[in-house]
Amino acid sequence: MVPGAFVDYFAAAAAAAGTLIGLLFVAVSLRPEAVLGHAAPPRVRAVAASAFTALVNSFFVSLIALIPGTSLGYTAATMALLSSYQTMRLHLGLTRRTAALLQLVLALAAYTGQLVVGVALAIKPHQTGLVYDVAYLLIASFAVALGRAWSLMQGQQADAEQEQPQAK
After folding, report:
1. Which domain covers residue 136, as residue numbers?
2. Does the predicted model carry a pTM greater than 0.90?
């Protein structure tokens, strides 16, 4: 159960996540072949998908938190599991040379934290302190997603991919 004091926060977070997802679509559509095309470097595709995953996680956790009487714990835990799976799937497809280890560790740490807090909140749904934890984890998720999206816009991922020598 989400206390009434959090309704405005989760409404703003859901709106922000939805807007940022839309902006990510616009950014990708400006260079679709360079980001998602068959010739796009795997790391670039992974960064784009990873940013999308973090924003979708934030969007659904926030949106479902607004439904009266819904358990935020189950939602947070479910979205953490889905986001962790997607993140692992993205990174397992990368070669060691292109894998962004720090990106993987930060994402999995955030999703693991969200899973732990979600399970605790499912067990103790009236524990307001745990709702604060979910709120702060959403802020971390936004920060990671925005960092990834910004690096895509700057073309840093593609540049790093091109600078590394090809394995023979």
Report:
1. 4-160
2. no
